[in-house]
Amino acid sequence: MSAMWKPSQAGTTSPNPTPEPARPAPTAPVAEAPSRAQVGTADQATIGKGLFVKGEITGTESLYIDGKVEGSINLPGNRVTIGRNGQVTANVTAREVIVLGKVKGNVSATDRVDIRAEGALSGDVAAARISIEDGAFFKGGIDIRKPEGKSAGAPNGIGAVPPPAAAPTGYDTTKLV
Question: Which listed residue, of 84, 86, 92, 175, carries a Cα 20 to 30 Å from 156's Cα?
């Protein structure tokens, strides 16, 4: 019987240390996983849906907004994405602006503004390109600006034809030429 007691004692002592190291082991990878995710998204900052920011946001990286922002957003050369839960009351200046949530304010983009079907934008837009999906809400003026690098190419050829068609729809390309 002493032989049976020894294996059972060894059996009871070995499961006890096994769960203890097993518990910290999963905890360590879980702690590493978010840090790896944060490193992977270092190119884009995120304002989560539980956050409210009031003031001026400036910087040199892209921004994803799923919370509330009031003030101004100035990220030239970068992308600003307003998520489905995002509520922005601010003037936004960026290279590219994607609207999935709600924006109240003027938007200026050196490249493009994209208002998705779920999105709503109330304010004036100044951009080289604009895309408004079916179902999106937009109220404001549109100022299409020629891209800096492409002004010598196709826009000159296109610019000669559209002014009569553009004037009735609200686009005034004659002042831009």
Answer: 92
